[in-house]
Structure formats: C-alpha cells, structure tokens
TrEMBL record:
Listed cofactors: Ca(2+)
Gene3D superfamilies recorded: 2.60.120.200, von Willebrand factor, type A domain
Highest taxon in the source lineage: Eukaryota
SUPFAM superfamilies linked to this entry: Concanavalin A-like lectins/glucanases, vWA-like
Annotated source species: Branchiostoma lanceolatum
Pfam families, per the entry: Pentaxin, VWA
Keywords: Calcium, Disulfide bond, Glycoprotein, Metal-binding
Molecular functions per Gene Ontology: metal ion binding
Sequence ranges assigned to domain VWFA in this UniProt record: 172-348
Pentraxin (PTX) domain segment(s): 1-169
InterPro entries: ConA-like_dom_sf, Neuronal_Pentraxin_Related, PTX_dom, VWF_A, vWFA_dom_sf
Record protein name field: NPTX1 protein
Keyword Glycoprotein (UniProt): yes
Amino acid sequence: MRSNMTSSHKIGLVSYAVAEHHNELLLYVNGGFSLYIQNFKKMGDPAVWDGEWHAICTTWRSSDGVWQLYADGVLKGGGSGFNVGGKVRSGGAWILGQDQDIVAGGFDANQAFVGELSKVNLWDRVLSPAEIGADWAAFCDLHGNVIDWDTTNIELFGETSRAEYQCVCSVDIVFVVDLSWSIGMVQFEVARQFILDFVRCFGNQDVNIGVITYDCVPRTFIGLGTYALGDAGLLGAIQGLMYSGGLSRTSLAIRHMTATSNFRDEALRAAVVLTDGNAQSNVNGQITGDYAFEANEARSADIALYSVAIGNPILVNDVALKAICGESDRVFDTDNACEVANRILKDLCG
C-alpha cells in the first residue's frame, strides 16, 4: 500500500462481507490497524502513511486466537485469544478500499481509502515469519491460495484506476571482464560500452554494480556498494577501465568473484562474465575442467551466472560460455545490454 492519509482517518482497506455479518473479515484503520473477524482486535499503528510503498501483513489462527501484525516484514504487534474457534464463512463479497455495511454495498465516502494498493493476497493458513521475512520486497513473490493478486479478476468501480506496479527488488550484479590478449583492444572497448549501457537500463531499482577484471590475475576494480546506481561516479569509474592483455584465467576470476564480492545479505546475486571462453592453456576451444567447477561453486553461493561473448567471433568458445552460466539461454552477445539487464531482473525478481 502507498498513501498520504493518516491513521486518524477511518479507512476500510480490505473488506469481506457475508449475509450473516458485514464484518466477516475486515482490515480497518481508525487510530491504527484493526482486524475484524465478526469481532475486532486493535493491532497497532506502524508508521506507514508517508507516501512510500509499505507491506502490511496480518495473521490469525482460529485454534488459539493468535494474531500478528507485520509492517515491511517486521513484527509490530501480536497476541492471542482473539475469536478462538471462529470461522470465516464462504459465499461473500470482497471489496478493496471501502468498508461494506451490507454485502457489496453500504459504503461511506468518509471511510474510503485514498492511495494505491497492490499484491493483496489471502491464505487459508498462517504464514511463517520466514515467509513474511525482513525483506518486504519478498511479498512480490508470494501468491495466496485463496486470493492470488496475479490471477484474480479485479473489477474497478468509482474513481479508481489500474496501473502496473514494479516491485522493489534488491540485486547485486558483478561484471567479470576478460582483459586477455585474445580479446583485443577493439573488443575490450565494446565490452566497456556494454557495461556503460547496462547500468543505464535501470530505473529506481535497488541495484548495486561491481566490476572485476582479469588476465592471469583477477582484480576488484569497482567494489559492490562503492557507487549508487545513479551516481555519475559509477559511469566515470567504468570509463576508467583499461585494457591490459595477458593470459586468460576465467576460472580463477569466477572464484575471486564468489569469494570476495561482499554481496549484501538481503540482496539477490548475479554475475555477468564477459569473455571469449578461451582458457589460458588452450586457445583451440577446448575448455578446462575448472570452468564448470567454479561456476557450480558460484551457483551454490546463490549467484546467478550469465555470459556475454566478446572477442573475435571466430575464437569465441560457445561451449565454455554455456558451461559458465549453466544454461544456453543465459549466453548473450553485446548487441543489447538492456535485454541482459531485463533478463536478470526477470529471473531474480520475477
């Protein structure tokens, strides 16, 4: 939800009414959040009325009346003994943004929600704290088994409109750039431009960029978190990449990336390896065994791998590029950086 209202307003957020009771299930705001299941329980008043996106999650268990209120993945209130043994009856009507006083009606304009709602889901079980999680962006990946926001037909009434919502997703992406002799100066400049174009593809996403370069020795050129995504210093640092030449130790570079990148605990992880796939000891296209081993080690650390072919097209080792990323559809060329950026976000963030 996102709104500039205040909790002092009377607001019907999510309302479910049946013929027997108009507050069969209701998430209501009046000096804080209250959960109604025929009766009601005032749960708490977290600071979520600031015009920014926030995730609200409430839980209730009939057997012992245990209830909880989470805001942005953090527990804000809880207790027990609320409506023990109660049931929610079927056959009613769901309304977002208004409180029903009769089934599908009896609205009060003074109780209308003014703002935006998204990802409204309902389960027939209590979610665990791990499922709710401290990373509230995880709500974008959840799908209720009673109401699933992504598959439920939502009808619009009154002064409402529909727009596409982009979930906030925290991603750390490290480029691993081959500077060896087989790449050459011209193709190195293509690779550098690819990275510059790549970082321009993102809007307001929470994305950190790092760069590791390698020939026979891997080196961290830009550490994750050194620059914010929109910081002009990031583009300047990328433009400062210099070609070296030398032998190619791709497997060692992948190992260095896995061990030293300092990915954020809360962020999803990806690495993009820009190389022709030719190993130090073999320029004839026969890959060495440690490509797959080091790539598997990276994937075991929850790092999604992607390959981008650079260098002389005649010398590019497609088998090695596939071995690095594990799937042929994660091998790209340098023609469209935003295609790669969008693919990473789709794979990781959904």
